[in-house]
Specification:
The chain is of the alpha/beta class. It contains eleven helices and eight strands. It has a single domain, classed as Alpha/Beta hydrolase fold, catalytic domain (Rossmann fold, 3-Layer(aba) Sandwich), CATH 3.40.50.1820. The two termini are 24 Å apart.
Length: 269
């Protein structure tokens, strides 16, 4: 289904699904993942939309970058969308992908018609204590060593550690996560935290005034699920919570997640 372009666009690997003449829907993955994390929801979306999955710098098939500052990544994404001739687009971001999506709308309101944020923590105080496996993988002194010797089984456990429902982690996602460097991941996490510490996501969205869909699992293990209601203050925002779903709604509840995105994208047309 996906068509790998064979080249990166402004340093970002792009995969297209669905008819090119359909309205564009851009999907942005979170930290330590890749565009393949959206795989289970793509078939439903590609029936009605031109789905564009982006691998952010240093992730998936995209080359590393000199900087992982959120606004700079958004600027690179804007350049890629300009080259592809896409506007206006609906942009959906998972977890910290929601920060890139929001920064893109801040910089280029001409590009973004609406935003969907899935499991995107609103501010640093909403972050939960992380699963032990993730803490060990990230923190020195063991982190750099364990990162180098990660097995496929460990990578799958890293994904499922923040899920609440049983999931089959796509093989291509495992392969692409393996290529993410330790320093890249640490830097990305630090820059993501700086972006929402400077100004919360609800405050940023309120200033934008674009239609927003917020999706949270009620059993998210990375961000406090109740923090979804911090977005209730955002004009033009609709908050949806998925029962018994953890941090990866695209993997844990692909049908429900896909249907929410379809309805939201259709409403903005």
């Amino acid at each position: 289904m996906g068509i790998h372009d064979g080249k990166n666009v402004h340093g970002m690997h792009v995969v297209h699904d669905g008819p090119r003449e359909a309205p564009p829907l851009v999907l942005i993955h979170g930290s330590g993942a890749s565009g393949s994390s959206w795989g289970p929801v793509v078939p439903a979306l590609a029936g009605r939309y031109h789905v564009i999955r982006i691998d952010l710098p240093g992730h998936g098939r995209s080359a590393p970058a000199a900087s992982y500052d959120v606004p700079e990544q958004a600027a690179g994404l804007a350049a890629a969308l300009d080259e592809l001739g896409l506007r206006p687009v609906t942009v959906a971001g998972h977890s910290s992908g929601g920060y890139i999506a929001t920064a893109l709308a801040e910089q280029r309101p001409d590009l973004v018609g609406s935003l969907a944020l899935i499991s995107s923590g609103p501010s640093p105080d909403a972050l939960l204590p992380q699963p032990v496996l993730l803490r060990v993988l990230i923190a020195p002194p063991l982190g750099p060593f364990l990162w180098r010797v990660r097995s496929d089984a460990m990578l799958r456990r890293g994904v499922t550690a923040v899920c609440n429902r049983p999931v089959d982690v796509p093989d291509d996602l495992v392969a692409e996560v393996r290529g993410i460097g330790y320093r890249t991941f640490r830097t990305v996490l630090r820059q993501n935290g700086a972006y929402i510490a400077e100004r919360s996501l609800p405050a940023r969205l309120t200033a934008l005034g674009v239609p927003v869909l917020v999706v949270f699992g009620t059993a998210d293990r990375r961000w406090d699920p109740s923090s979804a209601h911090h977005y209730d203050t955002v004009p033009n925002a609709r908050v949806e919570q998925l029962p018994d779903v953890g941090h990866f709604p695209m993997l844990e509840a692909p049908e429900e997640t896909g249907e929410l995105l379809l309805r939201f994208a259709a409403a903005g047309r």
